[in-house]
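Intended use. Records like the one below are meant for learning the mapping from a protein sequence to its folded structure. Do not use them to infer anything beyond what is encoded.
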Amino acid sequence: MTTRWQRIARAQAGEQYAAAYAERFRANADRGDDIHGEARLVAGLVDPPARVLDAGCGTGRIAVHLAERGYRVVGVDVDETMLAVARAEAPELDWRFGDLAALELGEEFDVVLLAGNIVPLLEPGTLPDVARQLAAHTAPGGLVVCGFGLDEQHLPAGCPVTPLAAYDEAMAAAGLAPVERWSGWSREPFEEAAGYVVSLHSRR
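Structure written out for the chain above:
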């Protein structure tokens, strides 16, 4: 099955979208841009060697950096093309194919991380199932950290907006309690008008 993400990515970058995605971040890093805001936020929440699930890991940028910081990381993605890039970049890390709506790793993590607009790119109608599976993979007292765009300016072209209220409802139904909310990975105070949200929930 072709996913919403794959359709959007191919429309933007063609069949080599995974390599293009990884190259864009490499170019940003070479230019001196900060590309590790997500990992830095996680590091401010839990100390290594905490277990982190990078849910929707893509080409592995965040998981690789967290592993370098001493975290025990598992990266999971539904896109084998993106995972192939991640495996080539860091073959020693634990990369797994999986659909977040039906994820069954049989493990729990101190932090479950969703970065890169994972939520708006989910398949239609799957958000409640994804939230339940995220909760099932979060250790008691553990954290779910999720960032995504709230308007068209902060989403890939062709990606629909997921209302923040719908996300909050799904998380609450899954037994995940709100802890904090920011407008970016550097913990900027939340303003919905900023067009981006990073939400922190804990497992009850």
